[in-house]
Structures are given as structure tokens and as C-alpha cells.
Amino acid sequence: MSNPNAAKLHSRVQWRPRAAAWALVLLCGACGDPPGDGILLAASRLGEAYRWEEAKPLVTAYLQYHPEDAAAHYLLGQYYLHAARPNLIIALGEFHTALNRFRRGRTAGALGALMSPVEFEADIHRRIALAHMRMAREALKAGLPPPVAQPQLVQALDHVRKALALTPDVKVLREMKETLERYIEPLKKTPPPPSQELLEPDVHLTT
User: Fold this and answer.
1) How far is CA 109 from CA 39, 68, 112, 123, 167, in A?
2) Which of these, 118, 187, 98, 196, lies nearest to 147 by C-alpha position?
């Protein structure tokens, strides 16, 4: 059952995110009740404002009581993807865990208030693709030859296609597919120079 006090605090996150985040964590610890869905909704709202450092304690507090929750692993993956010091390996692990947990119950959990199960599954695939694209970008920025980045780009394209199969009308997915296909195809013949679309942050790598 959701904690009604946590749900009330969720409404304050928009204007006092840091205070509300810690208040939710402390409230759940003090009352001894498992944190309710309000905590994940608050974390999601913080993430939308790119306040992932403040969202993380809410997600980890929720996971202590709900370790199998797909939505919580999805949000934790986003923290590691968007943190000031990203950890793409952990991000990928969390996203794949979210996908596996989702397939067991076919529900978006607390995030069902924000998206349908199909949209949730598609967005997990999109986040996995973003992590692989960032890995490829880091390899290219480090001066590694383009073929080294190819497996990451192929993985990214695979997950973008899976996301498109679920939500074919999402524009950003179509754009990601076009970008990846345009870069991967030449790699099969002659390695091209690093693509600026992959070297420079853009909408595909930051959303």
C-alpha cells in the first residue's frame, strides 16, 4: 500500500526538490513502513529536471523494500546514465535488470501513472541504446579506431529497432535509427572518420 504522507510530499518536489527528497527518505525510515509509489514518482519528477543526485536516494530507499521493481531499476539506471560522473556499465546493468523484471509482470509499476507498459518497455530499450551510443562516443573521443566502437553501435541499433517495433510513432527513435544506420553501414566497408553526431552531445545522447 502506498504511503499517503509520501504521496503528499511528492506534490512539493516541483518547488523544493532537495528538501522534499530527503524528507521522503527520512519519513519512510521513521515510520517503518515500506516506501510507496509516491517516492518513485517524486524521483521521476526530479529526474525530469535533471536532479538525479537528489533522485537517487529516493530510488535506493525504494529498492531496499522492492528489489524486484522494474521501475526502480529503470530510474537507477537513468541516474548512472546522467550523473555528473556517469557509469555506463552500471547503467546498462540496471536497464537490463529493469527489462527482465518488466517481462515477468508486464507492468510499469509506479510509473504506470506516466506511461503505458508498452511505452515503458520501449523506453527501457531506448535508454539501453543511449548507453551503448555513449560508450561508442567515449571510445571515439579517446582516439580509438572506429571499428572498436562498432559493436556498441550495433547493440544500440538493435535496441532502437526493438523500441520502434513497440512505439513506431516516436520521432526521436526514428532519428536515432537513421543516425546509427548512416554510421554503421560504412564501417562494414571502409572505416570512416569519427562522426560529429556521435562525438558531440545531442538530443539522442542527452534525453
Assistant:
1) 12, 11, 5, 14, 19
2) 187
In a 13 Å sphere around the CA of 37, the CA atoms on its Cβ side amount to 11
What single-letter amino acid sits at 8?
A: K
CB 162 within 8 A of CB 140: no
How many CA atoms lie less than 13 Å away from 103 in the CB half-sphere? Answer: 8
CA 87 centroid distance within chain = 12
CA 173 to CA 14: how far, in whole Å? 28
Question: In the prediction, which pLDDT does 125 show?
Answer: 98
pLDDT range class, residue 185, cuts 50, 70, 90? confident
| Mean pLDDT of the 106-129 span | 97
Place of cell 535509427: 177
- Per the prediction, the chain carries an average pLDDT of 83
Mean pLDDT value across residues 16-44: 66
Give the dihedral sign, CA 95/101/107/112: negative
Q: Is the pLDDT of residue 207 over 50?
A: yes
Residue with cell 537513421: 178
Asked if 159 and 132 count as a contact pair (C-beta separation under 8 A), the reply is yes
Q: How far apart (Å, rounded) are the C-alpha atoms in residues 191 and 151?
A: 13
Q: How far is CA 7 from CA 12, 144, 188, in A?
A: 10, 48, 52
